Amino acid sequence: MKKTKYIRIRDVYKFYPFTLLAIRHLMLHNISGIRKTLIKVGGRIFIHTQRFDDWLENQTMKEDPYNILHDEEIEAAYKKVEAAASREEVQTQEDKGHCVHDSPRQDSKHIKG
């Protein structure tokens, strides 16, 4: 028979990539049904680790079961960034050729005569 393991909420960072504040936020708002993984004994709250592991596995992105970006997606994102940067460069060069402020700036203050 497998023994169920429980950990205290304040020790969650030792076993999972969550801070205490993040877990409390999830609990407060019951995000994605996280309260089903919790057990309250007296004034202490414990995490049922097997249920929490199951809950965590179900939080992955639905489009990609491995929750990672593929090389093609990364390459496409880099191309978009490079294209945007080159468009900004061309726009900057065009702006330098057509400077609007050739004359000195005039103050908008009224001078009393």
Any overview of this molecule?
With 113 residues, the chain is an alpha+beta fold. It folds into two domains: 6-57; 68-98. Helix content is 41%, strand content 11%. The chain contains three helices and three strands. A three-stranded antiparallel sheet has the order 1-3-2. The protein is elongated.
Q: N-to-C terminal Cα separation, in Å?
A: 98 Å
Q: Which stretches are poorly predicted, pLDDT < 50 over at least 5 residues?
A: none
Q: Shape, please?
A: elongated
Q: Give the overall pLDDT as a whole number.
A: 76
Percent of residues in helices comes to 40-55%
Structural class assignment: alpha+beta
- The helix count comes to 3
How many discrete domains?
2
Biggest sheet: strands side by side, in what order? 1-3-2
Number of strands: 3
Radius of gyration: 28 Å
**Main beta sheet: strand number and arrangement?**
3 strands, antiparallel
The fraction of residues in strands falls at 5-15%
Elements, N to C (H/E): EHEEHH
